[in-house]
Design goal:
75 residues, mainly alpha, YejL_sf, UPF0352, UPF0352 protein MD483_15490, globular
Length: 75
C-alpha cells in the first residue's frame, strides 16, 4: 500500500527543483550533495524533534531512503 503524503506532488517537486538548482549553481558533486542532504536532515532532527524521538525518526528516514533506492533499481 503506497504512503499518502499531506504534501502535494507539485509542492515537493518545486522545492526539489529549487534545491537542485542551488546545488548545480555551486557545482556540487554527488558526494557534496549527499553530505549537504545529510546535514539538512541532521539539523531538522536536532532543531525540530524531541531528543527522545530523534533516533527512531532517523531510523525510519534511513529505511525510507533505502526503500526508495530499492524501488528504483529497475529504472
Amino acid at each position: 500500500m503506497p504512503i499518502t503524503s499531506k504534501y502535494s506532488d507539485d509542492q515537493v517537486e518545486n522545492i526539489l527543483a529549487e534545491v537542485a538548482a542551488v546545488l548545480e549553481k555551486h557545482g556540487a558533486t554527488p558526494e557534496l550533495s549527499l553530505m549537504i542532504a545529510g546535514n539538512i536532515a541532521t539539523n531538522v532532527l536536532n532543531q525540530n524533534v524531541a531528543a527522545s524521538q530523534r533516533k527512531a525518526i532517523a531510523e525510519k528516514f534511513a529505511q525510507a531512503l533505502i526503500s526508495s533506492i530499492e524501488d528504483n533499481t529497475t529504472h
